[in-house]
Amino acid sequence: MLGTTFILALRSIRRHLLRSFLTVLGIVIGVAAVVAMVTLGKATTLQVQKSIASLGTNVLQIRPGQGFGRGGGGPRPPDFDPRDVEAIGKQITGVTAVAPQAQSTGTAIYEGANWSTTINGTTNGYFEVQPWALASGRYFTPAEESAGKAVCIIGNTVYTNLYKTRNALGTRMRIAGISCDVIGILSTKGQSGFGGDQDDVVIMPIKAVQRRMTGNTDVRLILVGVDQAYSTAQVQASITDLLRERRHITGGKEDDFNIFDTKQISDTLSTTTTLLTNIVTAVAGISLIVGGIGIMNIMLVSVTERTREIGIRLAIGAVANEVLMQFLVEAVVLSCLGGLIGLLLGQVAVILLSVLGQLPFIFDVQINVIAFLISGAIGVVFGFFPARRAASLNPIDALRHE
Amino acid sequence: MGAAAGSAVADGIPDPLIRLRGVTKTYGTGATAFQALKGVDLDIATGDFVAVMGPSGSGKSTTMNILGCLDVPTDGEFIFMGHHVESLDRDQRALLRRKYFGFVFQGFNLLARTSALENVELPLLYRGDAKAERREMALAALDQVGLKDWWDHTPGELSGGQQQRVAIARAIATKPAVLLADEPTGNLDSERSVEIMELLSDLNKHAGITVLMVTHEPDMAAFAKTIVHFKDGLVERTEAGHAQGERVG
Ligand SMILES: Nc1ncnc2c1ncn2[C@@H]1O[C@H](COP(=O)(O)OP(=O)(O)OP(=O)(O)O)[C@@H](O)[C@H]1O
Ligand SMILES: [Mg+2]
């Protein structure tokens, strides 16, 4: 009997194709909106997490000063000493790697091409703290590090701007007025989550940068990799104690350095994007309910309009339940079809917005299934009342209906 | 043989196919109540072709609705094939209609924007027939009314006479025991009307379907074996029709 009812429902939807489509427009839009919002929300969360991950997960960044937006007046707190870096590496438990960083800028020149870029002086520890694969070449040797040799590993942006597609390994380029041998080319990392091209960089041993460029042994930034088994908060606290001691900050005096915990930031941002996604999805969900009311409205009109048809069906022997099922199935089939169109539309929206917003494209099976089931449920809920009205019609009156 | 109680016995059937006893029908209640039937007694034997005649408002359609199990009498008995229809509920009557009755209406009442074939298939669909069987029976019914080649036309693409023939095909597709037709030729010109009457008469004679038909036109009633005259909610008289002598069985 359900098979029959299904055929009848499909036939009558086909008979009123335009109206059927208009009927389900609300569901179409609602489902599309819900799917698009949830998927884009997840994509955004993923994007944020990826941005944070590009800084390295479980990484502490230690800078002199009191952090973003704090401090103000007074003399600038001193940079760190290379021995601070050493101390952190040796004395703090739960630390996997430490990398000091000294920065400079300068123009890189190779055979007539020149490119202004950031020069990052560090150690091999840098590549341990935040894994960054080489496209070709090698990292520094211990000898190069300790001697501060003028060797450099270049980011992809620098490579393409100076060398196009030519071989760079083993060549000697000039950077900020000194010659340096190119020993490695980094794989592409892309934009950072905060804007800015992460591949626009030349990495050299920190001693080379200090001696030949900055002219001092100051360390502007220390990156600390934290073992997964340890809590970043705990390691952060130990480092704070150590640095306070080494920088002679006593009693109630505030730290003159700050430690930025990427994991904590990542968690905060994820919570925020999830909350925003939920709010937007709830709004989209409301349009689903509005869509359901649309279905009920049109189904009621349809019952009135098709009173004579109902009369014919009853006269030739349809029992009340069959008429009820017919209209109910019709409503459910309609809303499910609307749901399907909505899913397709939602995917299109996701693809377009992913491209526009430079978000990763994801296909979330779960939300598609849920949205589809909800559209079916809406058909049942909002189709029931009109269907019951149809089933309760008196065949004689219905047949006489104009 | 007329529609009197005795005819069925003469046919060797213990009960008539249809028996109405003291059937009344009152529309409305209280001050606005109106008694459309005032105690109708009527027996119809299997294989009969009955024309119901009478002035407007005499209760012909009301009686047909009761006979077709579309409505129940306010009082009295309606026995169909041994079933006391007056005490059946809505769905039981629907099942009875599905099994034994075919309906033809004055206004054709075909589903719009639906092919002739799908219209004819409709009662078979409710009966739960399989697709192939449904198609075969529907096409056979269309063939019987001479519209086999028109199976894919919608009512809008058919003339009035053709639409009524599709309606008849729909009514006979299930091979019903009784065909009820309330003014089947009311919307047709006389030439088309005669064609329809010939078709009904043919179905009665060769398919063995008992036909009950309301008509205002004596020309159409002439095709019947029995003519029942209604007046003021009562059966005024019953007479043998012109087709009486051709009766088979
Ligand atoms: N649903 C109804 N409610 C109230 N009165 C009704 C209803 N149906 C029929 N009647 C009344 O019952 C009487 C008999 O109606 P019925 O339709 O049986 O007449 P009829 O013999 O078929 O007439 P016609 O030849 O005009 O079709 C009429 O007076 C009519 O007004
Ligand atoms: Mg009438």
Structure report:
The complex is a heterodimer of chains A (402) and B (249). Chain A has helices at residues 2-15, 17-54, 82-91, 125-129, 142-147, 156-163, 206-214, 232-246, 262-305, 307-315, 320-356, 365-391, 395-400; strands at 59-64, 95-110, 113-122, 134-137, 151-154, 172-175, 178-186, 201-205, 221-226, 257-261. Chain A has 402 residues and is α+β, with helices and mostly antiparallel strands. Chain A has a six-stranded mixed beta barrel. In chain A, helix 1 packs across helix 11 (320-356). The longest helix of chain A is centred in the last third of the chain and has 44 residues, at 262-305. With 249 residues, chain B is of the alpha/beta class. Chain B is built from eight helices and ten strands. Chain B has a six-stranded mixed sheet with strand order 6-7-8-3-9-10, sandwiched between helices. In chain B, helix 4 (116-127) crosses helix 5, helix 4 packs parallel to helix 6 (160-172) and helix 6 packs parallel to helix 7 (190-206). The complex binds adenosine-5'-triphosphate and magnesium ion. Residues 27-28, 34, 36, 54, 56-62 of chain B line the site of adenosine-5'-triphosphate.
CATH class type of chain B: Alpha Beta
Q: What is the name of the CATH architecture of chain B?
A: 3-Layer(aba) Sandwich
Tell me the strand percentage band of chain A: 15-25%
Our count of domains of chain B comes out at: 1
Strand order of the largest sheet of chain B: 6-7-8-3-9-10
Helix content of chain B: 25-40%
Bound molecules: adenosine-5'-triphosphate, magnesium ion
What's a quick, concise take on this entry?
With 402 residues, chain A is of the alpha+beta class. In chain A, 57% of the residues lie in helices and 17% in strands. In chain B, strands 6-7-8-3-9-10 form a six-stranded mixed sheet, with helices on both faces. In chain B, strands 2-1-4-5 form a four-stranded antiparallel sheet, covered by helices on one side.
